[in-house]
């Protein structure tokens, strides 16, 4: 057993504590707390510990309300009062900004969210008994979840019903989407069901099940503000329904009247209608052919290209909007953006480390950050969304 003081929370939600053996990373802690812990393992020179006892607690510590909290690897900030989570997330981002991008700067806005029941979308796995759940903390095993406090109530009703089966059928992945407009639940399965399993699925008359080959059966419209999107459980869609208008509003402030705007990684077209309402020509680039099909049906005014962004021939434009996966922009894409000297880059990211890495590249090539915001799309977790405007000087 060892004791130490938690210095800060770093990217990923880990608390940093110093010990004679080196820096130890712990979960379930808050900065400035004195804790008792043990070192569990050393991997690639990093020490991972297990919290044993809180000797002196932070005033923002609260009792987690979720019964799965100690085991589930999901919302690891539930022991922290929500307003202080904002302070921690801002600190995580500013630390990455200084350490990776070499930039010291305040954020301009932090947009908060209701902390519970905000998720309309989830990807879940089967536990050993084929019930649906999430990955257990620090393991590769799945914990059965019947009720997640982050989910819309309709998703939880499905989880309870599915997991209460005597012997649920096996699927190695479930992509779940609740549509608040028509109040239907859509579940995309990892593979087609057998004839026997299909009979079981028909018992869930209020759920639309799809799988590869019949994705068309799960298409529905979702309305966000003044815009309507075709969505599918098989495709990415932002999960925090409470905050989607806020996300659009943050991007809207960077737009006026433009000739051409490019939307990289455009998906089902979340930003497309906003962009073409402020430009003469809007171009979307997306590698998923199904996503492009839905976006073209929703927004025929946009010019859409079904290809990896790396293969796109970047034309002249006023603005390029980037909303890449967690891995960020590839070197090829960054170079092509830089070579085109686009006046403005609207960069949206859910990973502060890769965002700061890419920002450093643009800072080194004549750009500066004009506006920088955090929007809490993922309350009770260490994750957040970055919305920024990077301009050519």
Structure overview:
The longest helix has 19 residues, at 82-100. The chain has helices at residues 82-100, 153-163, 195-202, 244-252, 272-276, 289-298, 331-340, 352-363; strands spanning 2-10, 14-19, 22-26, 34-43, 46-56, 109-111, 121-126, 132-135, 142-144, 174-179, 184-189, 207-210, 220-224, 227-231, 258-264, 279-286, 303-306, 319-322, 344-349, 367-375, 385-392. The protein is built from 8 helices and 21 strands. The chain has 393 residues and is of the alpha/beta class.
The total count of helices amounts to: 8
Largest sheet, if any? 8 strands, mixed
Write out the strand line-up for the largest beta sheet, numbering strands in chain order: 6-20-21-19-18-15-16-17
Mean pLDDT figure = 96
Structural class: alpha/beta
Radius of gyration: 22 Å
Q: Any guess at the CATH architecture of the largest domain?
A: 3-Layer(aba) Sandwich
The termini sit apart by 54 Å
At the fourth CATH level, what is the homologous superfamily of the largest domain?
Answer: Vaccinia Virus protein VP39
N-to-C SSE string, H for helix and E for strand: EEEEEHEEEEHEEHEEEHEHEHEEHEHEE
Count of individual domains: 3
How helical, in percent, are the residues?
10-25%
Report the top-level CATH class of the largest domain.
Answer: Alpha Beta
Poorly predicted ranges (pLDDT <50, ≥5 residues)?
none
Write the CATH fold name of the largest domain.
Rossmann fold
Gross morphology = globular
């Amino acid at each position: 057993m060892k004791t130490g003081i938690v210095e800060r929370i770093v990217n990923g939600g880990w608390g940093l504590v110093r010990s004679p053996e080196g820096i130890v990373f712990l979960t379930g802690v808050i900065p400035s707390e004195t804790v008792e812990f043990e070192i569990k393992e050393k991997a690639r020179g990093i020490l991972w510990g297990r919290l044993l006892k809180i000797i002196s607690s932070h005033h923002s510590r609260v009792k987690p309300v979720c019964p799965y909290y100690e085991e589930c690897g999901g919302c690891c900030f539930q022991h922290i009062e929500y307003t202080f989570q904002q302070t921690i997330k801002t600190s995580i981002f500013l630390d990455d900004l200084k350490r990776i991008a070499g930039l010291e700067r305040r954020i301009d806005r932090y947009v908060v969210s209701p902390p519970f029941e905000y998720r309309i979308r989830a990807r879940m796995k089967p536990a050993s008994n084929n019930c649906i759940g999430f990955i257990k903390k620090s393991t590769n095993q799945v914990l059965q979840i019947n009720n997640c406090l982050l989910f819309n109530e309709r998703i939880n009703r499905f989880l309870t019903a599915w997991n209460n089966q005597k012997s649920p059928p096996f699927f190695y992945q479930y992509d779940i989407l609740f549509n608040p407009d028509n109040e239907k639940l859509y579940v995309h399965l990892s593979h087609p069901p057998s004839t026997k399993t299909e009979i079981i699925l028909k018992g869930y008359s209020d759920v639309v099940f799809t799988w590869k080959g019949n994705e068309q059966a799960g298409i529905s419209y979702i309305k966000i503000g003044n815009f309507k999107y075709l969505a599918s459980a098989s495709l990415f869609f932002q999960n925090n329904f409470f905050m989607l208008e806020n996300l659009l509003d943050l991007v809207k402030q960077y737009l006026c009247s433009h000739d051409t705007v490019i939307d990289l990684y455009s998906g089902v077209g979340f930003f497309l209608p906003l962009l073409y309402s402020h430009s003469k020509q809007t171009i979307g680039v997306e590698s998923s052919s199904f996503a492009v099909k839905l976006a073209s049906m929703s927004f025929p005014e946009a010019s859409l290209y079904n290809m990896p962004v790396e293969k796109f021939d970047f034309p002249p434009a006023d603005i390029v909007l980037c909303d890449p996966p967690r891995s960020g922009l590839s070197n090829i894409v960054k170079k092509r953006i830089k070579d085109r000297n686009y006046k403005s880059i609207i960069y949206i990211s859910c990973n502060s480390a890769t965002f700061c890495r890419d920002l450093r590249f643009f800072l080194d090539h004549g750009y500066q950050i004009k506006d920088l915001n955090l929007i809490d799309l993922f309350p009770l977790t260490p994750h957040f969304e970055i919305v920024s405007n990077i301009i050519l000087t």
